[in-house]
């Protein structure tokens, strides 16, 4: 690993100041993506700004009808949170199936969405639920946040501080996991709020996306059978050694039907 | 930079480079080679240790991140001369290892599970050990060992 200077600020403003003061400085959250990429020299920052010393960046709370999750909240803590289990069980279930237990003990929601891996799980929940991503300087709608593979609307030096989830009437996430890494080969999050249905797909393309045809069909009838005559276009989907794009297109529809069935009868 | 932590109940202070991994500090700086490094890419779980009671992959933790932490490695289970920990004894009795390379990580991950789930079902064990890869045993006897080890620990407490 390339040498770097290590900083551990105790406030968001101090972290933002450090990131602004140094060229080639990056925030460190759980390190479950950043450390492996530094080992492979895909990343070589000169300054690491560790966010783990900032009190108040982790934890789960309700603000009116909105579930607020601090950026530094670990996957394992979202999975086992009584509040998340009661208010948004689909999100707890998603968090409990990220990677393995040791990854879940370190990885954070802020790191996951800032990283925007095309096969990551959280981006599907954030996009399907229409969450807001709160940073040190503004609030960004999920629809505007995820740009492309490993690319988000975050400016250099901008820090995610929390994610605000409006509560749906029904929601579920279903993924077909790569058996080695547990990343999604295809993952579908469905969320129904009133008559509106939002569906986000991860793992299948270069970044998470909303599946318009599936949303339209489910807004007319929120039943797995509503998706029987629908397919998604394979031409824009990823193909790799694990799955070609036709297979991924097929998996998306299967995961979507299963997610709807799960949303209708959670438990 | 200097970092201080408690390692297997002993207060420890070491001089490290910020870019060192916890696995390097344990194995190279402190010459405690019970913790193994299998993949060094966060996949295999051979390097699992406890940090503040939770199992984590020491090959994916920067040394400065453990300042002030309470760390336990496989060496901390039974001391230098004491009898084996019941979980270690169960792995020995149930043929839970062949080459033994994965065993320190298996033990530390299993003990984290048993600490909050004293009587785990087979499915709990398989799910919890998802991140621990064994190239020898086929896992059957590892699961058997964890069930036996958990039972022995319940009896002892
Ligand atoms: C073996 C393994 C299996 C995995 N399986 C899965 C899986 O099945 N599904 C899945 O979704 N993920 C998986 N992951 C990834 C895991 O969830 C990571 O924890 C996550 O992607 C990154 O979160 P982190 O907190 O570790 O961030 P870090 O690695 O610390 O940071 C990641 C990136 O985000 C930036 N960053 C971090 N925090 C912030 C912030 N608050 N504001 C702005 N930028 C920030 C960093 O600078 C860095 O560029 C896996 C990882 C491993 C090692
Ligand atoms: S050596 Fe750490 S996970 Fe393999
Ligand atoms: S006993 Fe050889 S790797 Fe598990």
UniProtKB/TrEMBL annotation, chain A:
Superkingdom of origin: Bacteria
Gene3D superfamilies: 3.30.465.10, CO dehydrogenase flavoprotein, C-terminal domain, Uridine Diphospho-n-acetylenolpyruvylglucosamine Reductase, domain 2
Family annotation (InterPro entries): CO_DH_flav_C (IPR005107), CO_DH_flav_C_dom_sf (IPR036683), Diverse_Substr_Oxidored (IPR051312), FAD-bd_PCMH (IPR016166), FAD-bd_PCMH-like_sf (IPR036318), FAD-bd_PCMH_sub1 (IPR016167), FAD-bd_PCMH_sub2 (IPR016169), Mopterin_DH_FAD-bd (IPR002346)
Stretches assigned to the FAD-binding PCMH-type domain: 1-170
Gene Ontology MF, one: FAD binding
Pfam families (alphabetical): FAD_binding_5
The keyword Oxidoreductase is assigned to this record: yes
UniProt keyword annotations, A-Z: FAD, Flavoprotein, Oxidoreductase, Signal
Signal peptide: 1-25
The UniProt record lists the keyword Cell membrane: no
Name listed for the protein in its UniProt record: Carbon-monoxide dehydrogenase medium subunit
Lineage: Bacteria, Pseudomonadati, Pseudomonadota, Alphaproteobacteria, Hyphomicrobiales
UniProtKB/TrEMBL annotation, chain B:
Protein name stated in the entry: Carbon-monoxide dehydrogenase small subunit
One Pfam family hit: Fer2
GO molecular function terms attached to this record: 2 iron, 2 sulfur cluster binding; metal ion binding; oxidoreductase activity
Keyword Amino-acid biosynthesis among UniProt keywords: no
Secretion signal span: none
Organism superkingdom: Bacteria
UniProt keywords, alphabetically: 2Fe-2S, Iron, Iron-sulfur, Metal-binding, Oxidoreductase
Record domain 2Fe-2S ferredoxin-type: where: 1-77
Upper taxonomic lineage: Bacteria, Pseudomonadati, Pseudomonadota, Alphaproteobacteria, Hyphomicrobiales
InterPro entries: 2Fe-2S-bd, 2Fe-2S-bd_dom_sf, 2Fe-2S_ferredoxin-like_sf, 2Fe-2S_ferredoxin-type, Beta-grasp_dom_sf, Diverse_Oxidoreductases
Keyword Coiled coil listed: no
